[in-house]
Amino acid sequence: MKSITVKALVAQLKNDLIGKDSYRGVTLTYSWLANQFGHFSLGFIPTILLYNVLKAKTNMSQPELWAAFGVWAGWILFELFNFLWPLLFKTESIRKALGTGKYTFQPAWTNVAFDTLTDLVYFGMGALAASLICEFHKGMLIGLIVLVLLVIYPFYYWYTTKMFIQNADYPFQLRLSQWNQRIKEDNKALILDFLKHNEPGKHMLLFGSRGSGKTMLSVGIATESSIKNNSCSYITAVKLLCLFFENEDNPPITKPGAWSWRNSSLLVIDDINPGGNVQDDILSAKQFYTILNNLNCGELNKKAIKEKSIIWVMGNDDPDRHAEERWETLLENIGVEKSNITTVNLDAV
């Protein structure tokens, strides 16, 4: 499966730092860089202002140190409040303020904590850099160097993680904890189990009528996998049918450093059937298999489907459908073990 190489990372940095976003759009990596520059500035600018106030209005010794550590301490308290308040005191008003409502799936609090610590390091870098500009102090220089060294790994992790998310081509950004629709507890357990296991070849058939949140749920699941630095891809069924005819002589077109549907670790196939008032399948399992098993790339396609994990976003589940017309039968014909097929029906609540 594909991963983010150093060459791809450098190329993305070059694209984000050079050029104008007004005509090329804003990437997730660019937004992350801008966000961290904002954190640096929120440490830098208040430190400069506070230093000038302390120096002009007080007789305080070493105001550059008091300003830097005072501003940094203020941001530490703010981030602790921002992180711990919804975690420890999740009142209804706070949940509404977060925009998530009652958690159906718990947030990845460890990941959130790491993000908070990363922000605090950038706040500190800004405060210490401002202090050095105001008055040089050897200890502050050493402290700034230590923070720069500490931020190397978080920078690499978060920047590459944003690349994993943006290369998946999701239609929108959504963490699993932001999905707050109703779901049966046994289906919830199946989803968490699917997400927990990283071995390839796991398939989830996600059924639901229009408005059940099946597309949002599939993107949320895949996003959590992307954050674990897995190469995920989102694609609609119609587009995938066209890609079934790509082979070595007609290779897929991908962005530099990205991956195709065949070499992704998790694939989301959306809009297979609409559901809702459209009872009959527009794309049947039999039709899908016929196009999948075309003369030029049939074996290559079946191998790719069998060996990767896939979330199949379906319409309504009809238990009375003949076995040969069911999607479970299609997967078994390809060679997927029945134990590797999970079915989740969002209409069953």
TrEMBL record:
Keywords: Membrane, Transmembrane, Transmembrane helix
Organism domain of life: Bacteria
Record keyword Transmembrane helix present: yes
Lineage: Bacteria, Pseudomonadati, Bacteroidota, Sphingobacteriia, Sphingobacteriales
SUPFAM superfamilies membership: P-loop containing nucleoside triphosphate hydrolases
Presence of keyword Nucleotide-binding: no
Name of the protein: IstB-like ATP binding protein
Transmembrane segments: 37-54, 66-88, 108-133, 140-159
UniProt-listed InterPro entries: P-loop_NTPase (IPR027417), YjdF-like (IPR014509)
Pfam families recorded: DUF2238
